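Quick one: Muramoyltetrapeptide carboxypeptidase LdcA (Peptidoglycan recycling) from Micromonospora echinaurantiaca, structure tokens please.
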Amino acid sequence: MTPLSYPPKPRPGDRVAVVSPSAGLPGLFPHVYELGLRRLREEFGLEPVEYPTTRVMGADPRDRARDLTAAFADPSVTAVLATVGGDDLITVTPHLDDAVLRANPKPYYGYSDNTNVLNHLHRLGIVSYHGGSVLVHLGRPGSPHPLTFDSLRAALFTSGWYELTPATEWGDQPNDWQDPASLADEPLMFPGSGWSWQGPERVVEGRTWGGNLEILHWLLAADRVAPAAELAGSVFLIETSEELPPGTEVYRILRNLGERGLLATFPAAVVGRAKAWDFARPHTPEQRQAYAAEQRAAVTRAFAEYAPDAVLVFDVDLGHTDPQLIVPYGGEIRVDAVARRISVRY
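--- reply ---
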């Protein structure tokens, strides 16, 4: 099993890479992107460094891989931030120069389709960070969400333990990026109701692995997931995307992981709050609740069949909803089902 290590952290004033290894959406929505860059400079004191494909939609996967490799190779760059997700990063990671990544480990921040990179770095022994997006989170309309920015600031600059906090309000209905005026408006938010716990009351400590569930299924199909024995003892991170996979599909994906022998090795799973609204499916609040309940039932069913003694925590703000808490990928986590607290080591 490859040992995992934390890369050195940036400091305020450092140069950090801003890359689009997935979709080059900064080129389509420069107003959102520029807001994210301004906050990166003003709120975090970091100087963003762009690469040739950062603002290019449909760039060749080899070119995107070349930019990502160059970001790791540059000795003046101390961290790498993905601008956004997408759906074809699985075609990029085979072109990365793993020797360069191993020789120049740096903290990488991304989620959704970036699960491809997070998993790739995990297999190289490099701890990365699930969460953070220049467009979605740094470019949030209205004002930055304090929970997101506090978590991201800690994940960027500190190395100690950090306690995750349940959101007192949350949202999953983003403003329309095609309307620049919408950047002035706060997103629609709902009252938070805390996390939901299932399973035995015990404390689980381990290293994290997982990410976006749909992308994990693709990675399994491409045979890019480590054997179950290597992932044994991991705390499983689960979140789903704006494609709103139905509960049946969520269950089947998890069942496949169970048949592979993975679920039985996970002592705990931290499940992101289900995103239940999209522009193509503008669900009512009642439909949102029904969708989230269906997804929770699917996860509960799969774990009852393959890992009945696992601790499950639902509605943690780590996925496609707002705010977003940053979680180390391959880093340490403590899931305390007795005190009902979750802490991570950045």
